[in-house]
Amino acid sequence: MIIKIDGKECTAQKGEYLLNVARRNGIEIPTLCHSDALPGIGSCRICIVEVVEKGRSRIVTSCIFPVMGEIEVLTNSKKIRDMRKTLLMLYLARVPENETIKKLAKEYGAKVPQRFSVDKSEDCILCGLCVKACESLGSSAISTVNRGVTKKVSTPYDEPSKECIGCGSCAFVCPTNAIRIEEKNGIRTIWNKDFELVRCKKCGEYFATKEQIEYINKKKDFNLEDEMLCDKCKKKKAGERLKDVFEDYKE
Amino acid sequence: MSNIMEIIKKYPREKRYTLAMLQDVQKHFNYIPRQALEMISEYVNTPLSNLYSMATFYKALSLKPKGKYVIKVCDGTACHIRSSMVLIDEIYNILKIRPGETTEDGMFSLETVNCLGSCAIAPVMVVNDKYYGKVSPAMVREIIKEYGGEKNE
User: Fold this and answer.
1) Would you write out chain A's pLDDT as a tens digit for each of its 251 residues?
2) Which of A25, A41, A122, A232 has its CA 20 to 30 Å from the CA of residue B14?
3) Phi-psi category of B30—alpha, beta or left, where left has phi over 0 and alpha has psi -120 to 50?
4) How far is CA B119 from the centre of its chain?
5) Residue in A closest to B37 by C-alpha
6) CA distances from A66 to A12, A27, A62, A69, A76 (A)
7) DSSP symbol at B81
8) CB of A126 within 8 Å of any CB in chain B?
9) Would you give the end-to-end CA distance of chain A in angstroms?
10) Which residue of A has its CA nearest to B61?
11) Secondary structure (DSSP) of A189-236
12) What is the ipTM of this complex?
């Protein structure tokens, strides 16, 4: 079907999420709690847009809004900009010094509200994306703990987790860089736990933790032993393979 | 620790019974021992982090041992304006505990709750399952005495 986003006609599959349709068509909608690797969780609300259907307009969360009919979408109307401004003002109240939030806030003209005093070193906006990433890419080592003003993301009992494999997926997806991950002398430290790093067989750069490799080997039937390559070398290898196939085809 | 197993074995090994198990463990021990959390995690095949998240989310569940008598002082709107904070201060004077804390002898815990639905008799205080209405600071002392508190004075 065809839907109109900011006046541009875009094709969409029935049931496809609005955010995906927009991004595929080059229309940028800001997000915080979204990662292309994971299903939308609709918690940060920054991706809200206006949907006009049968002459009526309503606000929806585009990352979890499935396109079901012919709609018109406004991603940057005054109404939406004002709402995003409010949201960002609230985020600023929690993480006044965070670069990602500050940048977005500037774009929308949101200012730090003066009536709250908060921990200025806080970077986490509690969107929960890291928890989801750990669930599907890692080993469910972290979760949200407590609730209300004391809510935070942590490991059980705030101790180094037995389950954590040090894959760093949580830190990788974090929109505000709130999760500390350090690498020094072949040791990666995350969530108060040290992990020994493994080198790529080709370029010799550290690329994964021992526990990560063990975890993958246990999960999958194949052994990773012969594929101990970092992302870059893996891409290169795949590219070469493709090139060979292509050249064979040409001849 | 066979106790824990007995409690959780009453339920099928399914994730949806987790909260019921946790409630039963809480009731039996007055808190949720770490071992119980680990055993349930294994029993229903759920990550420990999920259970920890649950146990810290619900106010009815506690990871620290609760006192034999749990005093709940209502601090909802009606009780608040009828000076429930004075009751909390009085309890501190007598037992030296603030909301969320437990006396050293493990007899009393203090909690505040947001409404008990008994606003007509505000301010309300509950000890375990017994309700006390229109409580005054002087009554607080009497009530705590009933449960064997304030011996050394």
Assistant:
1) 999 999 999 999 999 999 999 999 999 999 999 999 999 999 999 999 999 998 899 999 999 999 999 999 999 999 999 999 999 999 999 999 999 999 999 999 999 998 888 889 999 999 999 999 999 988 999 999 999 999 999 999 999 999 999 999 999 999 999 999 999 999 999 999 999 999 998 898 999 999 998 888 887 666 666 678 888 888 888 888 888 888 877 66
2) A41
3) left
4) 21
5) A156
6) 10, 17, 8, 9, 19
7) H
8) no
9) 41
10) A146
11) EETTEEEEEEE-TTT--EEEEHHHHHHHHHHSSS-GGGG---HHHHHH
12) 0.86
Tokens of A221: 């039937």
Q: Which of A143, A146, A147 sits opposite B49 (nearest CB)?
A: A143
Region of B45 on the Ramachandran plot (φ > 0 left; ψ -120 to 50 alpha; else beta): left
Whole-angstrom distance, CA of residue A144 vs CA of residue B118 = 33
* Residue A122 exposure: Cα atoms within 13 Å on the Cβ side: 18
Among A147, A156, A162, select the one facing B52 at the smallest CB separation: A156
Q: Which of B63, B71, B57, B53 is nearest to B25 (CA)?
A: B63
Residue reference for tokens 């860089």? A177
B35 backbone φψ class: left, alpha, beta (φ>0; ψ -120 to 50):
alpha
Tell me how long chain A is.
Answer: 251
CB-CB under 8 Å, B57 with A147? yes
